[in-house]
Amino acid sequence: MAGNTVDFLDVGPIERVTGVVRLPGSKSISNRVLLLAALAKGVTTVRDVLSSDDTAVMLDSLRKLGVTVEQSGNAVNITGSAGRFPVTAAELFLGNAGTAYRPLAAVLAILGGDYRLLGVERMYERPIGDLVDALSQCGSCVEYAGRKGYPPLTIRPGNLDALRSGMSLSVRGDVSSQFLTALLMALPLSGSGGQIRVIGELISKPYVDITLNMMRQFGVEATRQDWSSFKVPSASYVSPGEIFVEGDASSASYFLAAGAISGLSGGGPVRVEGVGRGSIQGDVRFVEVLEQMGAQITMGDNWIEATAGVQAKQAGHFAPLVADLNHIPDAAMTAAMVALFASGTSILRNIGSWRVKETDRIAAMSTELRKLGAMVTEGSDYIEISPPVQLRAATIDTYDDHRMAMCFSLAALGGVTIRINDPGCVRKTFPGYFEALASISRA
User: From CA 384, how far away is CA 230, in angstroms rounded?
Assistant: First the structure.
């Protein structure tokens, strides 16, 4: 132990899993909704909001910007600022929360004011230059307080006359979809709307769909032409009154994978509640990956259940996966763990965005998978995984990355003990993850 922080947690061996898990709210939806509610006219009650490090820094920042925020359990009441934050000079600490840092940077740059946006050291290694370049096209004043192209940022009043008369912005789409999300959410605040042109391939398209859906619920209907151009109208955000946050589809992937893996040896099924066939989240398509590998999936409107399919049970393993997973980059990490229980080499392609996440996930996954005995080849935007005959017990480094901790806990289903270093990093999106896993585990 180090103070109140647990240095490591031993997981497993887990003989089987079965049961039901109620999911926490989606991080992607939670932080979008909280910001939109703060910018809207009227009071919004946000229910089932995620309680985590990432939402905590967003809520703290909104309070510092003068927004009235009242919390009661998993509900948050936000009195919107009608498009103008009361506080026009502030220093905000945003941790390593990309879903808070990028949209707030764009919103504050377009509104104008004197702001300093800080974060943890890893945030200062995550590129933001493409967003800053796009904002500079409309006359905003965003300065790098450290290394060019990276946070921290200083925002000062700019000359936004060009933006307010309506204009076209361009932004690269092949590094992070959060840059486009940030511009989409911020542009209505100019009072004139405008057009955003995407340069190159837009990655993680389902996350942009979430943004468009949330904006629509707050009264702003942005439209797209294919995925190359987006038109944002001149409109104000208006509170919908009450809004519910879906369960987190990325978090669902761990439990669905666990149910499928356990099903190979007679365990399962595992059901997750809070997300289902009507989900607006792209990561719900992780079930297609599981089905492709040989899992059996059942879905309802608000739940999904997974176990191994008949052929996979008979064979005792899954089929290898060869797939482009650009559309589900977070859940793709879970697919890498299921690949450990496949009959041959799996290839996960078009996942270059892993390089600029909470850690360099391609490098981190490669290093830690090898500890388990897997043979791994990594490229700039892909990873190849050949499973060992028998998994090895291992101590897994998590790189202050919540998804590394949650993913590698699944290796305990291979009959080995997995030591997870710094298990507390799951606070970022799922503070109760290990308790939820234990609740469905049978030793």
Answer: 35
Q: For 8-23+247-442, CATH number?
A: 3.65.10.10
Q: Say what the pLDDT of residue 168 is.
A: 84
- Mark whether 54 is an active-site residue: no
Residues in Cβ contact with 59 at an 8 Å cutoff, skipping those fewer than 6 apart = 34, 69, 71, 76
What does CATH list as the number for 27-232?
A: 3.65.10.10
Task: Give residue limits of the domains in the chain.
Answer: 8-23+247-442, 27-232
**Tokens at 310, concatenated:** 């008949």
| Cβ proximity of 256 and 286 under 8 Å | yes
* 441 backbone dihedrals φ, ψ, rounded to 5°: -95, 145
Q: Report how far residue 236's alpha carbon sits from residue 192's, in angstroms, rounded to the nearest whole number.
A: 10
> Quick one: pLDDT at residue 74?
83
Using the Cα atoms of residue 293, residue 389, residue 351 and residue 431 in order, give the sign of their dihedral. Answer: positive
Please identify which of the residues 48, 130, 248, 330 carries the catalytic annotation: 330
CB 39 within 8 A of CB 67: no
Residues of the chain under the 50 pLDDT cut: 1-4
Identify the three-state secondary structure at position 35.
helix
- Which two three-digit tokens encode residue 394? 């291992």
pLDDT for the residue numbered 139: 84
pLDDT of residue 166: 64
pTM to 2 decimal places: 0.89
Per-position b or e across 163-202, b if 16+ CB within 10 A of its CB: beeebebbbbbbbbbbbbbbbbbbbbbbbbbbebebeeeb
Half-sphere exposure in the Cβ direction for 186 (13 Å, CA):
30
What are 53's two structure tokens? 């490090």
Phi and psi torsions of 305, nearest 5°: -130, 140
